[in-house]
Amino acid sequence: MKNSSLTKKQRKERNRIVLALIIYVIIVAGEHILKRMGLLTGVFSSHWVLMILYLLPYFIAGGDVVKNALIGIKNLQMLDESFLMFIATMGAFVVGENAEACAVMLFYQIGEFFQDYAVNKSRGSIKDLMEIAPEYANLLHDDGSVETIDPDDVEIGNILVIRPGEKVPVDGVVVDGASMVDTAALTGESVPRSVGKDDEILSGCINGEGLLKIRASKEYEDSTVSRILEMVEDATSKKSRTENFITRFARWYTPLVVLGAVILAVIPSIITRDPLTWIYRACTFLVISCPCALVISVPLSFFGGIGAASREGVLVKGSNYLELMAELDTVVSDKTGTLTKGEFTVTKTSPASGVTEQELLETAAFAEGLSTHPIAASIRRAAGKSGNPAGLESVDNVSGRGLIAKSGGRSIIVGNAKMMQEHGISCSEERDDAATIVYVAENGKYLGAIAISDVVKPEAAEAIREMKEEGVRQVVMLTGDRKQVGEAIGSRLGIDHTYSELLPDGKVQKVEELLNEERENKKKLAFLGDGINDAPVLARADVGIAMGSLGSDAAIEAADVVIMDDNLDRIPLVIRIARRTVRIARENIVFAIAVKLIILLLGALGLAGMWAAVFADVGVAIICIINSMRMLNRKAFQRKSLPESGERKLKKEAA
Q1: Contact 472/575 with Cβ under 8 angstroms?
Q2: What is the largest CA-CA distance in the chain?
Q3: 0.70 exceeded by the pTM?
Q4: What's the fold here for domain 341-456?
Q5: pLDDT-wise least confident of 91-105, 302-316, 630-644
Q6: What Cα–Cα distance (Å) separates residue 260 from each residue in 95, 105, 269, 277, 285?
Q7: Per-residue b or e along 298-313, where b marks 16 or more CB atoms closer than 10 Å to that residue's CB
């Protein structure tokens, strides 16, 4: 344990324990040597003198425990660990077990020190995340001067200067410059992203080597970094069922064992007339019963799980949601922007005889020049044309069919097969279930067809397969798209059930139906979405999972888990983390309670002394903490041969 890994308070506590331990060893060794030499006579043979000697290391190591116990007694709030340790060790001193009493306090403090170190270490990943908060912003004035201001003072529209190595203070758009930005703290993605003019940039990113000027698009409190910090801070207040069980258990457990210790000390003493023996057993009983192994190790497991997820670019808004992720039976997903990129692309062209592919695309792009529809934009990109074409006189949109554009003597029709039939244009109907087909005609002459598809995310099929490997029984897709498109994509990705042509309220209704089925079987359902229309469904599901970096603010606010880099690979990963977290927490509960019950019984029968009690308290706590710290091992929940998505390979090759 290196000094650099300890806080100032921890170093002070360590030095205090080491000093007390040295004094304790000297006293024990001296007492043992003097006894063997027959020199422990006179004043040194006095019970009170030996007690005073042992109280020196006792108070050096455990002074704060005694102080907390006395404050608890004064405030009538005494049924806690400090009270148990104080009463048990004082009782041991009274019956003459000075060395054991001092040893119990020493080992208890060693255990507390180790717990504190473990908690701080488990918080490391979340501390790293908290450090993404920018400390200042560089405001560029109209006269070219730059002023350093607080990020809270940045207003929408302000121009900010981001120098190399500085954090982006608020969300914005690059207006000048180009650079590579490090988004690892936000998304868990180690490969820097390239940004240039007109690109969006998120607060909390670290600028690389280039100088950037950005226009603030959000105030600090609404920016990504602020929302992330708020989510992380709120996460610690939302306890899992397991943690709540431990809290309730400790609330009843501690007074019961104190009552049991009193009964054990009083009633057998009256019967046997040997109070010293039974007071010693009662003190042993109290040390054994100390619930710190459960009280610290179970929350530590969940804290480690949340930290492990955040290192991978996944924000879990509370331990309760991590526990629910471990119990998922059904994952319901939106299609556009979630399983697909939400970017329409021309995937195929079928020009008529005597028409070239470029002529077909340019004609369609000319007609779609004023349209803001994603399909129109994809056609213009494929043709290499921008909007607002010169000479376009009028555009008549026909709802559910297409459009008619006119320019000079040209009349261009771009639409579906029904549109062509209505205008008496003969065309060979194209078949592609996963694509939208657009037909093009000019002055009554058929020019050809263009197939446009939403691009499926390259990691989607693998992510769905891994979810099922992690125990998810079924994956369901909901989409407002045509039935043929939905089913084609669902079949390609290995989706179990696809429901198409749904409006937002239809998605909520379908999720309600699936939730009712799951609750009958006591199973859990997660919904995965990204758009503003997904917010009601995200809030309704047992666990709402939002794709964060491209997702809407409403979806992120409604969700319980946020995937910061939109990578579907993160979902099976966070399920693995959740299941490992819950498994470790349950292992700790079973182990701690079993050991304590066995040694409690042995202690009551006089078969286990104070040293066994120390193991039942400190030893069990340390074992449980070490078990919980397995969550800090990043390799433990990652697949050894996880296939890389096509995008990630390209990023690595580019880097």
Answers
A1: yes
A2: 125
A3: no
A4: Calcium-transporting ATPase, cytoplasmic domain N (3.40.1110)
A5: 630-644
A6: 19, 21, 14, 16, 8
A7: bbbbbbbbbbbbbbbb
Domain ranges of the chain: 1-122, 137-223, 341-456
d(CA 629, CA 623): 10
- For residues 325 and 542, give the distance between their C-alpha atoms in angstroms, rounded to a whole number: 9
* 124 in Cβ contact with 307 (< 8 Å): yes
**Alpha-carbon span 568 to 560, nearest angstrom:** 16
Closest among 336, 520, 329, 551 to 434, alpha carbons compared? 336
Q: How far apart (Å, rounded) are the C-alpha atoms in residues 191 and 184?
A: 8
137-223 folds as 2.70.150
Q: Report yes or no: 94 and 51 within 8 Å, Cβ to Cβ.
A: no
Pairing of β 328-334 and β 524-529:
parallel
Q: Could you count the other beta carbons within 10 Å of the beta carbon of residue 641?
A: 4
Q: What are phi and psi of 149, to 5 degrees?
A: -130, 170
Residue corresponding to tokens 């920016």: 223
CB 242 within 8 A of CB 192: no
Q: What is the DSSP string of 150-186?
A: -GGG--TT-EEEE-TTPBP-S-EEEEE--EEEE-HHH
Q: Of all helices (H) and strands (E), which one includes residue 36?
A: helix 8-37
pLDDT at 576 over 50: yes
Q: Which residue has the tokens 């433990």?
A: 636
Q: How confident is the model at residue 433 (pLDDT cuts 50, 70, 90)?
A: low
Strand order in the sheet with 159-162: 146-149, 137-140, 159-162, 212-216, 172-176, 200-201
Catalytic pick among 171, 182, 334, 530: 334
Residue 411: per-residue pLDDT: 93
pLDDT, tens digit (0-9, with 9 covering 90-100), for 633-646: 766 666 544 444 43
Token pair, residue 638, equals 């990652």
Structure-block tokens of residue 203: 């607060």
Tell me how far apart the alpha carbons of residues 597 and 619 are, in angstroms, rounded to a whole number. 15
Task: Let me know if 505 is a catalytic residue.
Answer: no
Partners of 351 in the β-ladder: 448
Torsion angle defined by CA atoms of residues 578, 579, 584 and 588, in that order, rounded to the nearest 10 degrees: 100
Nearest to 167 by CA among 135, 198, 141: 135
From first CA to last CA, the distance across the chain in angstroms is: 36
| Residue 19 neighbours by CB distance under 10 Å | 13
Two domains, one topology: 137-223 and 341-456 = no
**pLDDT tens across 356-410, in order?**
999 999 999 998 888 877 788 889 989 888 767 777 888 888 876 889 999 888 9
Calculate ∠ Cα 585-14-232, nearest 5°.
40
- The residues, any chain, with a CB within 8 Å of residue 19's CB and separated by 6 or more, are 57, 60
Residue carrying structure tokens 């400790």: 250
